[in-house]
From TrEMBL:
Protein name listed in UniProt: VWA domain-containing protein
InterPro entries: Tellurite-R_TerY, VWF_A, vWFA_dom_sf
Record SMART domains: VWA (SM00327)
Positions in coiled-coil regions: none
Organism of provenance: Actinomadura syzygii
PROSITE patterns for this protein: VWFA
One family name in Pfam for this protein: VWA
Domain of life of the native organism: Bacteria
Span of domain VWFA: 19-201
Length: 226
């Protein structure tokens, strides 16, 4: 895995924070139209999230890609600092390692919030994959760790399958809420929904270490099916 570098918190911003980690499958099977639409959707996400006056300074986004290797493509940054990226495809699907990396990022960022005396909302992990995990035992261990984190209210987890080959059985193990399957290549509407959801969370008052963002009304999911 490429070693992550996470910039320090901007302590002049005393607003409560919500950390959101995007886990993006960039394995070879995502080549062609899927990766092109993913890139366009992510650019839309950056633009829309950066326009909301509260979300742009309260939402902190990190991006973990997994395709052959796991890479922190975007360390945690405030939404107003996000820039579109061009993700490229490679290799297999080490989802277990990606999950571990994302959980490490979240735990580290929460520790920084606490040390700085900042309130925070329950973090989000948003997982996109079009296949099956290829790192067997690592994936099994990561699923157990993730389940413990979710039960302890340490994160809210969303899993999304891309295409007919997505292993929905394995994705269902990642969250109590169950996975959604993306309709076609509707990455744009999906990222617009994610941006709107982050705006809803950022504008709520349900912050604190035990905050239950699952009770915050979210926009309808028109881009996927259960």
């Amino acid at each position: 895995m490429t070693a992550p570098f996470t910039p320090r918190l901007k302590l002049d911003n005393r607003d409560p924070r919500v950390a959101c980690v995007l886990l993006l499958d960039v394995s070879l099977s995502m080549g062609g139209a899927p990766i092109d639409e993913l890139n366009r959707g992510y650019a839309r996400f950056c633009g829309e999230l950066g326009e909301d006056p509260l979300a742009r300074k309260r939402t902190e986004v990190a991006v973990v890609t997994f395709g052959g290797e796991v890479r922190v493509a975007q360390p945690f940054a405030e939404a107003r600092e996000l820039e579109p990226q061009r993700f490229s495809v490679s290799g297999t699907t080490p989802l277990g390692e990606a999950l571990d990396t994302a959980m490490d990022l979240v735990e580290g960022r929460k520790a920084e919030y606490r040390a700085a005396g900042l309130e925070y909302y329950r973090p989000w992990l948003f997982v996109l994959s079009d296949g099956s995990p290829t790192d067997g035992e690592r994936f099994e261990n990561a699923v157990r760790r993730l389940s413990e984190m979710e039960r302890a209210k340490g994160a809210t987890v969303f899993a999304v399958g891309i295409g007919e080959a997505a292993d929905m059985t394995q994705l269902a193990r990642l969250s109590e809420r169950g996975p959604a399957r993306l309709r076609g290549l509707q990455f744009g509407p999906m990222f617009a929904w994610l941006s709107a959801s982050m705006q809803q969370v950022s504008n709520s008052v349900a912050f604190g270490p035990e905050s239950d963002t699952t009770q915050i009304p979210l926009p309808p999911v028109g881009w996927g099916t259960a």
